[in-house]
């Protein structure tokens, strides 16, 4: 699924539509350079799930936890681990379980800890100017993420 977003609101609307069809046990990988919109996407996703408190990138804490009505939401930003790794002893794989949803920024730094079935969201700025235009590509690996992506395509296609 490919979406061109021309605003923060459009990016967050896509995130809200994803939140409406998300299932516990889902891991979402948010890929993109600094400033691509990973945290903006997460903010829209969390707000749609009823999270009232501010959602900020957990760059210095690695993980922020939020309780929704249906499951725990974990927002991981593992940028600090960098290419040197160091995640082996942190137990990050515990966040990827059947009773929660995890959004992971900079997932390439913890590949060994990630589940095999994931929803992958690639965000890229389309210009270097002052606009908020982004290209968002979403693909699924595994049965549950594929079902979620199909539901999202139906929902976003009819609500956008």
Put the structure in a nutshell:
With 160 residues, the chain is an alpha/beta fold. 26% of the residues lie in helices and 26% in strands. It is found in: Cytoplasm.
Number of helices: 3
CATH superfamily: P-loop containing nucleotide triphosphate hydrolases
Helix content: 25-40%
User: Which structural class is indicated by helix and strand composition?
Assistant: alpha/beta
Largest sheet: 7 strands, mixed
**Gyration radius from CA atoms, angstroms:** 15 Å
Spatial order of the strands forming the largest sheet: 1-7-6-2-5-4-3
Proportion of residues in extended strands:
25-35%
Structure, described:
With 160 residues, this protein is an alpha/beta fold. The protein has one domain: Rossmann fold, CATH 3.40.50.300. It has helices at residues 8-21, 38-48, 143-159; strands spanning 2-5, 27-31, 63-67, 72-77, 100-105, 118-125, 134-141. The protein has a seven-stranded mixed β-sheet. A hairpin with an 8-residue loop joins strand 6 and strand 7 (134-141). Helix 1 (8-21) packs across helix 2 and helix 1 packs across helix 3. The longest helix has 17 residues, at 143-159. The chain starts with a strand and ends with a helix. The model has no long low-confidence stretch (mean pLDDT 89). Pfam families: TsaE (PF02367). This is tRNA threonylcarbamoyladenosine biosynthesis protein TsaE. Its main location: cytoplasm. One of its GO terms (molecular function) is metal ion binding. One of its GO terms (cellular component) is cytoplasm.
